[in-house]
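Open question from group meeting: does this chain pack into something compact, or does most of it stay loose? Before anyone orders reagents, we agreed to write out a predicted structure and look at it together. Recording both the input and the output here so the notebook holds the full record.
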Amino acid sequence: MGVSYYAVATSLIGLVGDYLFEDRKQQDTSAAVQLAGELSPLYLSVQSTALQSRLDSASGELGGRLMVLDMSGKVQADSKRELNGSRLEVPEVASILSLGQETDYGVHLLKEGMDEESTLSVRRLFPFFDQKEAWISYATAALKHNDHTIGVLFFSAPMQQMMQRLFDLQDRMVLYFLIAAMAALIIAMVFSRIITRPIISLTRSIQRMGRGDFSVRVPVKGSGELRRLSETFNTMSEKLEMLDKSRNQFVSNASHELKTPLATMKILLESIIYQPDMDAGMRTEFLTDINKEIDRLNLIIGDLLTLVSMDSKTMRLNRTSFSLAQVVTDTAHRLKLVMDNRHQELKLQLSDKCDMYADCAKLTQVIYNLMENASKYTQEGGIIRVRLIRSGRDAILTVSDNGPGIPKEDQSHIFDRFYRVDKARSRETGGTGLGLSIVHQMVLMHGGTVSVDSEEGNGATFTVELPIHQG
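Structure tokens returned:
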């Protein structure tokens, strides 16, 4: 801002100076030309007295010094009567005598200790002036007779008053520049403080987050970009905190789930090792239990690998064309023996084939997990209903049971990893707490939704909505 103001101020001073000089040049040159026309006959007829008298009167009128020079540059008449007979060597006279110009004009700088003949000619206004110096203008006009130059009229006038006005203007501009620069500096410091304060706060918060503190938040103030930046940071920090807590909880749950079957196997194996005379039937029972625990470990690890694959985005959909109704029928056939052993009744209601272009294997796992889950958590003799309909471009699958239901406070966590409503019962049934989480992730991969509706004591209904894509 200061540089811009200085540039404007300098340009303004230059424009004002140019205007004043041009105006003064026109006035002095016009006066010299007019007077030269009056003096030419007097000079030609060698009327020295009349010529001197006219120079004296014109000098008072114009407020300057007048001289008449011959063709060699010698002063023939001087209004101050000081340089008669002297040769005047200045550029403005030479341009008339040597170059044949009609008029010329120049501004000269008189310094202390210099006479008028050794003045320095300046054509442009300097940026800074020494006020001890005197300024003077020279205007020359040719004395003519029958279009021939017979001499030169020389007019010099002081310029100090005009220069003083320029000095004053320059001083005011410098003062204004300093005031504007100081004001701009103060305003910049204030605004810089206001603007950088939230940025500094945000930087410190990011540094704390880099050290692992995801609970950090920044105050949301002001408006515009900084406000949106603070809100975005807080949202990101909140999500990272939740993700960190979920990760810690996931590691804790996974460790616990893996530790439980390992501890059981260790006890069973130690019993076999330290009781070599154990009954054969009991040994077989222990080995059978160990085999079940190994299967359980394999199931947990398989589910964990599936979730890790989905989290890392490495799992891809292998889409094919198939009938979703046929997948439901085949899955029901696979689970029929399990349900029969529990004396459970499975009722299918398939109102549409729901031909789809999707990943058949993953949707098969979704349907299997939901139906198996319904069987596990429904008492013996219970009823499980599976319904498939088509609604517009969506296939809607519902799996309902008349089991104990899910408490209201647990329904928002039902798709969380390792979450169990009844932990002891879940382990008895062989659940890992990952089945519904896998269902949720696979449905999302297909662009669908899954939800649960339940009342405690009145069973539960899982609803899956999937977009039907035709291949």
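Observations to bring back to the group:
Residues 113-131, 423-430 have pLDDT under 50 and may be disordered.
DSSP finds eleven helices and 13 strands in the chain.
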